[in-house]
């Protein structure tokens, strides 16, 4: 396995289809063998059911479902344990991380770097995320 994409999620049913389509589109361009690992961190909105349907069409998808919310760190930790790829990339399920950037991350790692981190210069978070974050 060349690439593992690890994606923790909580109540992201609405973004999963687009995320899945964009991920497969970008990963196929690499010509590498890949897997996409979704870790459902106790969603209550039908996210896991949507992932089950997507997995029927895409055998590269692997799933793990927590029975309650344990937090992003726990979800990532379990995703890392599941990952079989030589390169492991983490992404958020809300499309704030652009799948089109995957090739840049891979290029840097294949160029000899052991760790690559990206960040957004400008985020486009919805109000229900930006307003509470201003209090912390």
Automatic annotation (TrEMBL):
Q: Which GO terms describe its cellular component?
A: plasma membrane
Q: Do the record's keywords include Membrane?
A: yes
Gene Ontology terms: biological process: lipopolysaccharide biosynthetic process
What CDD domains does the record tag this protein with?
Answer: DPM1_like_bac
UniProt entry keywords in alphabetical sequence: Cell membrane, Glycosyltransferase, Lipopolysaccharide biosynthesis, Membrane, Transferase, Transmembrane, Transmembrane helix
Q: What InterPro entries does this protein map onto?
A: Glyco_trans_2-like, Glycosyltransferase_2, Nucleotide-diphossugar_trans
One Gene Ontology molecular-function label? undecaprenyl-phosphate 4-deoxy-4-formamido-L-arabinose transferase activity
One of this protein's Pfam families, by short name?
Answer: Glycos_transf_2
Q: Which domain of life is it from?
A: Bacteria
Q: Where is the Glycosyltransferase 2-like domain positioned along the sequence? A: 4-119
From the Swiss-Prot or TrEMBL record, give the protein name.
Glycosyltransferase
Originating organism: Caldithrix abyssi
